[in-house]
Design goal:
The structure holds two protein chains of two kinds. Chain A is an alpha+beta fold. In chain A, about 55% of the residues lie in helices and about 20% in strands. Chain A contains 17 helices and eleven strands. Chain B has a single domain, classed as P-loop containing nucleotide triphosphate hydrolases (Rossmann fold, 3-Layer(aba) Sandwich), CATH 3.40.50. Chain B starts with a strand and ends with a helix. Classes of the chains: A alpha+beta, B alpha/beta.
């Protein structure tokens, strides 16, 4: 077997230029495949992480029915049992209570409907990135007092409402008794998240102040929970539900709350098969073509090998090893180049500022950091080696079927 | 004891609508250890006969037994195994595997036979030393002269100690001196190892070296003579002079 592998290896370098062209095309294909996979992983991960770190959280605990109607009266009191259940779960990193209410912001110029979120500023920093998304260069800062008469809105909303940091706005909402309440608030700061539609639809203020305005007392709308990872939520959900032990409350994961996002991720994932198919088609034909040419050139030689006792199956394996070697060289070169490229992009990121609006619509952010999972390397290796083997089958069968006498007469 | 037995062997080819009668009823026996040349003009059928004996072609009619194997009805794999284990081939154009060194070319046959690595190496080195190529074992065919390549081909043909070596015009591409050296070598191997050699040739020198000369004309045996080989005659003369 070793000699057949060696024969395949040496035959590979008989036509150096031709082999190098095929190796280069495999290398380029692998590099492009790794780049595409890395970019998709980056976009998907950033899409999910940004949504989770702003609007979703890994998990949310709320009163049953709140997710569907988001009514202020669908609230609950966060008693010690609930907080203990969260603290005792090893996969829960942080949690923060929130009040959520539909509201309208009015200025002298215009008005906008949105959702106002009441948060504990210090706890919110642990469950979301709103603190990081606050734009310091606009002159404001993130909330620091849950009882302050202040509000944070997005930069895009501020532009639409024509307000600046320090300006007054009026917040109008229905309280828990379904009566209209209005309050004047100061714009404390502006934020910009990577998720465009989120920016246009939310405002943040201190939870105590919002509880006062709405008359909720110490009740809240939900508890946002951050777990050790995105995939940990599936095991946390039943555990937390049991630990809370209150049938009127429900635990929802980010997957439950954003089924469209999950579908989009699946769709993007399935698009990768198109990349594999493009790679497969390109490589199959170039390898098959190279091997057929190589076999035709060695027609006489293969005939001699068969004359002196080489079995057809052994000829088949020699050609297959030639293809495997071709694939391995291209694959190794491609993976080395791909790893270097991805390592560099991990530091620099890939700037999509030109398409910023589109990227923000996706919620991915304008700078993407491509990366690969270990499974992606395995898939790449399998796709390349499988492709080269499939490409080599026809030429190898053709070589194995060469009649020694015909080949001996062939010059 | 016969190593080749041929009875009423016929080989016809379809050549562009015309049937070509390459062999027209050959009857022939070759005994183990013979050093035989098949001579004849081009188109007389000598290469066809060698191809049939080597299992590279299928006869139209007749029976052909080589090294105890009746070739009729043998599968491609069986023929391949028979060639590997019982026959050594020497070709006019040397036909070494260009990507392998001299040693690896010789070793290749033993590898196909499943001989272990160290034994393979030892036997191949020994046989290359016997054919005078001890210093050239690591050279590839393109780094060897025509005579050296044909010596490697001889080493490859006999390394597995086959019962029969078929040599198709082995000296045709060599100058007279190199050709004579090669024939000396094969004659010695024939005597030392009792390997049967069967040549197809129209080289006078090969005919003179042969101990049996079969002449083919138009696909039939025209003559079949046993004689003293040139080498033996020369050696006897030398002894008498002493």
């Amino acid at each position: 077997m070793k000699t057949f592998i060696m024969l395949g290896w040496r035959n590979l370098w008989r036509q150096k230029r031709r082999s190098l062209v095929v190796i280069f095309s495999i290398t380029l294909g692998v590099l492009m495949m790794m780049f595409a996979l890395g970019l998709m992983n980056g976009i998907i991960t950033q899409m999910l992480d940004n949504s989770i770190s702003t609007k979703l959280g890994h998990l949310v605990v709320h009163k049953k029915g709140f997710f569907e109607n988001m009514k202020l009266e669908t609230n609950f009191y966060p008693d010690q049992r609930i907080l203990r259940a969260m603290k005792s779960d090893p996969d829960i990193v942080a949690s923060a209570p929130r009040v959520k209410a539909f509201a309208m912001i009015r200025t002298g110029e215009s008005s906008r409907g949105l959702i106002v979120l009441g948060v504990y500023p210090e706890l919110e920093k642990k469950v979301s990135k709103m603190n990081e998304y606050t734009l310091a260069d606009e002159g404001g800062s993130f909330l620091d007092d849950p009882d302050a008469n202040e509000i944070m809105i997005s930069k895009s909303l501020a532009e639409k409402l024509d307000v600046l940091v320090g300006d007054k706005i009026v917040l109008i909402l229905q309280d828990s008794k379904s009566e209209m309440a209005g309050v004047g608030l100061t714009v404390r700061g502006l934020f910009q998240t990577p998720v465009a539609d989120y920016d246009n639809s939310v405002a943040y203020m201190g939870i105590k102040r919002l509880q006062n305005i709405t008359g909720l007392g110490n009740n809240i709308s939900e508890i946002m929970v951050v777990a050790t990872g995105k995939e940990a939520v599936d095991s946390i959900k039943p555990r937390l539900t049991a630990a809370i032990g209150d049938a009127s409350l429900e635990v929802m994961t980010w997957k439950d709350m954003a089924p469209n996002l999950v579908s989009a991720v699946r769709m993007i994932d399935s698009m990768l098969y198109i990349y594999y198919a493009i790679f497969f088609i390109t490589v199959v034909f170039s390898i098959a073509n190279t091997l057929i040419m190589s076999i035709m050139e060695r027609f006489h030689e293969i005939g001699v090998m068969k004359s002196i006792g080489t079995r057809p199956s052994q000829i088949f394996f020699i050609i297959m090893f030639e293809a495997v070697n071709l694939g391995l060289v291209g694959l190794t070169a491609g993976i080395v180049c791909g790893v270097i490229l991805l390592q560099v992009l991990q530091f620099t990121g890939l700037d999509f500022s030109l398409f910023m609006d589109a990227m923000r619509q996706w919620g991915a952010g304008s700078i993407i950091y491509p990366f690969l999972y270990p499974k992606d390397y395995i898939i790449t290796i399998l796709v390349v080696e499988l492709t080269t083997c499939i490409a080599a089958i026809y030429p190898a069968v053709k070589a194995a079927r060469i009649k020694p006498l015909d080949a001996l007469h062939y010059v | 004891m016969e190593i080749i037995t041929i009875k009423s062997l016929i080989k016809n080819y379809d050549g562009e609508g015309l049937e070509v009668h390459a062999l027209r009823g050959i009857d022939l026996s070759v005994r183990r250890g013979e050093f035989t040349a098949i001579a004849g003009p081009s188109g007389s059928g000598k290469t066809t006969l060698l191809n049939l004996i080597g299992g590279l072609d299928i006869p139209t009619d007749g029976t052909l037994t080589v090294a105890g194997n009746n070739l009729a009805g043998m599968s491609a794999k069986e023929l391949s195994d028979m060639r590997l284990n019982s026959i050594g081939f020497i070709f006019q154009a040397y036909n070494l595997i260009p990507v392998l060194t001299a040693l690896e070319n010789v070793e290749y046959i033993l590898l196909l036979q499943g001989v272990g690595k160290s034994e393979r190496r030892d036997r191949s080195r020994r046989i290359l030393k016997e054919v005078g190529l001890a210093k050239e074992i690591d050279r590839r065919p393109k780094e060897l002269s025509g005579g050296q390549q044909q010596r490697v081909a001889v080493a490859r043909a006999i390394v597995s100690e086959p019962e029969l070596v078929l040599a198709d015009e082995p000296t045709a591409n060599l100058d007279q001196k190199t050709g004579a050296g090669l024939l000396d070598l094969m004659h010695d191997l024939n005597h030392k190892k009792n390997i049967t050699f069967l040549f197809s040739t129209h080289d006078r020198m090969v005919m003179e070296y042969a101990e049996r000369l079969i002449s083919l004309t138009d696909g039939m045996i025209a003559s079949d003579k046993k004689k003293k080989s040139l080498k033996e005659s020369a050696e006897k003369k030398l002894k008498k002079q002493r």
